[in-house]
Write a structure and sequence with these properties.
Length: 447
Amino acid sequence: MNESLNFSVPFSNPVMIFALVMIVILVAPIVFKRIKIPGLVGIILSGMVIGPSVLNLLERDSTIELLGTVGLLYLMFMAGLSIDLNRFEKLRNQSIGFGILSYSFPALGAYFAGVNLFNYSLESSLLLGAIVGSHTLLAYPIVERLGITKNTAVTMSMGGTLVTDTLSLGILAIIAGTVGDAQGPGYWTLFGTSIAIFLIAAVLILPRLGRWFFRNLKHETDVDFVFLMAVLFTTAFLAELAGLASIIGAFIAGLLMNRLVPGNGTLMSRIQFVGNALFIPFFLISVGMLVDVEVLASLDVWIYAISFTTLVFAGKAIGSLIVRLLKGFSNAEGLVIFGLTTPQSAATLAVTLLGYDLGFFDQTAVNAVVIMILITCLVGPWLVEKFGREVALQEEKKPYEPSQTPQRIIVPLANPETSDALMDIAFMIRDENSEEPIYPLTVAHDG
């Protein structure tokens, strides 16, 4: 018998580990959808069950953390790629305003609760605000599947993600800068300069690099995809190096590559397939494995967890309600906004763990945040799944608006002598901001 096979738990054989994860990714969505629970939620709960605190089949080791991080960055990259930039530019100010609202209400509530209820210091209270003010686009695969990513409310929510996470991680950077040796004008000058250099370099280099690559290199089946993966993870690393979070770098990479990847092309289909089938489920499993069931017996942890979760739900609900009333969204659209902005994960974990390392939070607060993450990750996708269907039906019933339809140009190529000229004309009249490719049309005759 092969001595490398070890059936003790947690599993140590890499083949067994990967096989178990693949079984979870396959079975969990099927089983949970039968009981009217979104597949995303089912994968998170399954991660909790197979994790260290229940069956202990898998250990949340460096491999799981690596794959979970890859899945999170991939999720943010896909969100940036899928935003309708033409609509986003029209909604830019609204997205920024919504992001500020979505962050401010939970953060202000957390600040007052931290000072008056938990006896936190000023720094700890601000960090608590940064924890509950951000959100993660965990339910993005649902809105993508329902075909409502171009809905105004959804686009605005996705754009607001960049604002809330930037504010959250900015507060973290400021508070961290007051601790230890990282203080003084020199630190802040270097911090601001590094971020400015990163943003300017990304905006100037990435679109030009992408256009050069897609225009000049002869593509094989996988080269386009590998190029985008290189851009994604390199940009995420450089963002982290500059002092930003890697998730913001991934989102920026998606935005800057957005116009180069047609939404209905084979490359986008390949990106969505790999993400939804592999990378994103790994991230969801890693979130579920964070839950420590033993701490559920602690009353203090539950008091903190319920308080933190209430701050998230109340703050995000107020922000969503204000935007719904101001913009005239339907009730279903308002609840989809709430569901998209409720889940906590990426920036939340970053702020919590660093705050714990710096001494601003104790173990009870950390465990409470993990429970809050699980609750919000369960509720948010469920709301988006339930009310996103109503939004999809509403979108179908909206009157036809010619100004909002994509520009599609079909070029008939029958005569080789005029083909080049016709294509040149098509490229001349094509809107440079259009996401649609040029569609050549030929007729194949029998024989």
